Structure formats: structure tokens, C-alpha cells
Amino acid sequence: MTRIVAAILTKNEARHIGECIQSVQWTDEVILEDSFSDDGTVEQATALGAKVFQNDFVNFAVARETALKNAQQLGANWVLFIDADERVTPELAEEIQQVIRTNESVGWWIPRYNVMWGHTMQGGGWYPDHQLRLMRVEAAQYDPERQVHETVILKGRAGYLKEHLIHYNYDSLAQFKFKQNRYINLEARILKERGVRAQPWTYLSMPWREFQRRYFSLKGYRDGWVGLQVCGLMSWYMLITYLRLRKLYQAAKA
Do residue 139 and residue 154 come from a single domain? Predict the structure, then answer.
């Protein structure tokens, strides 16, 4: 029997969690892998029938791997990972239910619309933004080395769905800056663990390369003023990441 569980990683997501869970209540079970939220997230989720598992946050890969194991204990053979600020459309729900019963693929990439301060992005690497989120439990494993942009290792073939996730990732420019600042520290630490060192020219070449890639190669210009803002900020954050990497090496010498 095919049994699918929707798994959501949470830490203080009270603003989003209700609508997120409602968008996946067609699944057999909804579980939260929660990092001890204290803003009402757990209470809302429980009221909507979700099962909550709580553990200290290590990194995203560890959290997803733990969620896979919890789903397996609940008898699931499929897991759909969804973030609290994402929504599954009825069309996507229907497509998922069809493919897990009729197709031999062990995983599925899902295209995603990213909404930034009210604008649905069309370029800059933000669309189609495929996410490998639907997978057979026994065929999936997460790489603990990928702490930020976690990567699932599949034992088998992955296909591509047509319908979309909707990602309400940033309500405002201020929220974008706040979240990116958090990712910068993680990225800098990962670079150091890999032994990456910045050369003198890196502080100019890497930000410029990032802007060119997003704005021109990935057509960030299609998003007008919002696209220019986002591509410029991603370039700036690339610079800050390497500056923080330098500080990590300096601190290690002290």
C-alpha cells in the first residue's frame, strides 16, 4: 500500500505553519521536525493533526535525515518535504498522488515559484528552481556535508513534475537581508571546512561573477527592479561571505 507523509522542518514558523499544513492535509500523515519552537508553531500544528518531533538543530541535512527516519517509523514509503513558507497547490497534490502510484521513479523534482515582496520571480536562478522534495523513503539519504543547500542521495532515477510549489520566501527587502545574513555565516564556515582560501582578487571577481551569472546568464533582468535588487544583493553577499571566511582563518591563527 502506498503511504505518503508530508515532512516540515520548523523553528518558530507560527505565521506560516497553518496554511502550509492545510495545503498537505491530503497526505496520509503530516509531521514536523521541530527545533523547539516557542511561538505557538507546535500548538497550531498539533491542533491541525500533525505529529511533532523535536530535536536540537544541527544542520538542514541532519534534520531532513531525521525526518526521513521518523516517517519510516510511521510506515511511510514516500516522503514529501515542504518548508513552512511553501504551499502545495491542488494541481500539484493531484499530480503527486498519481505519480507515486503509477511511476517507477524513486524521486521527483518539483518546480517552484518564488515570491519576493509580492513579486513572483521569473529569472535570476529563482525559476524554475526545481527542488528534489518527493522521494521513496528507502531510496533516499541526505549528505551531512551539505549543511545549507542540503543534497539528497537517491538510489534510483528521479523524474520531473509539471505542477508547482509556491514559495513565499521573502515578504520584504528587510527580511531578505536578515535571512541571507544567517546563511552567510554557514556558507563561510563550510568554505573553511573545505579548505577554500580567498586570493586578493577573489573579493572583486567572485561578486562580479555572481552578478553576471544571475542578472545576465540566468536572466534576472526579466524581473525588472526587483530582479536588479536581488542580483545586486546576492553579489554583495558573495563578497561578505569571503570577508567572513578571511576572519575565520584569522581567528584560527590567534
Answer: yes
